[in-house]
# Entry
Amino acid sequence: MYDIEQPYGPPVEGRLRVATWNVWGRYGPWRERERGIVAALADCAPDLVVLVEAWQTADDDQARRLGDALGLPHHLFACGMEDGDALSGLAILSAWPFVREDQRTLSAQDAPDGAGAGDGAGAGDGAGATGAFVFAEVEGPRGLVQIGAAALAWRRDHSGPRQRQVREICRFLAENQRRRCPTILAGDFNADPGSDEIRSLTGYGEAAAPGVFFHDAWTMSGPPGGGHTWSNANPWARPVLWPDRRIDYILSAHPRRGGAGHPLDCRLLGHEPFDGIYPSDHFGLVADLTY
# Structure
């Protein structure tokens, strides 16, 4: 029988802290920038971190570097693409061990039947139209947590490819989500909250896959204001000549038993310089979720 006072059962009382940040590879004074990234993340002490444009070389790995500095002993790097003398990709850092990992390159158009996402479909849609997705299950102290890291097509005119990439992610989640635990999707979506691709994730447009939709942590629990993660207040972003935009997200799937994964608080990271230098061309986000 439906309980109007506790529609999801007794509410969970623990908290989980998640951060996401596009850390801009090894561009500019990256060593100095990285110190600012570490300082900002250390100050908020997250349990899980999603990094976009993290880097890896033959003898060094930013996921390991940051994980060691932050006391997050479990980390993975995936979907690396050549970027100068390093690979640029997605990383997940965790306070707790991974029990499952998956990754895929997101194509710029729907793959034909029988073709995988990495089969080169959509190459004709232009540079920058591909995306990436990494998925992990984490065994935390209060049960399993599912977390996905995403980076979608970056150009402003690539809404079409981004919508297809969102559908691909959501089809995967529809098959793999566990409704008794938080399912989190975070990263750089390169799309505004009012875009078709984000609306399909947050219940304001047609769902990208049946039964898969999310709360946007900033909309639910952020302070007043736009929460712009791409901002002309940041001198690294200003030369691109884009408007101020919120394009990075922490999303949590709804509903879950006990309200697990419900956003309680969300705020910006790295929106002030560290030792006179902004840590990245993006600002990051950190959110507290029920767990």
Summary: The longest strand covers residues 74-83. Confidence is low (pLDDT under 50) at residues 111-125.
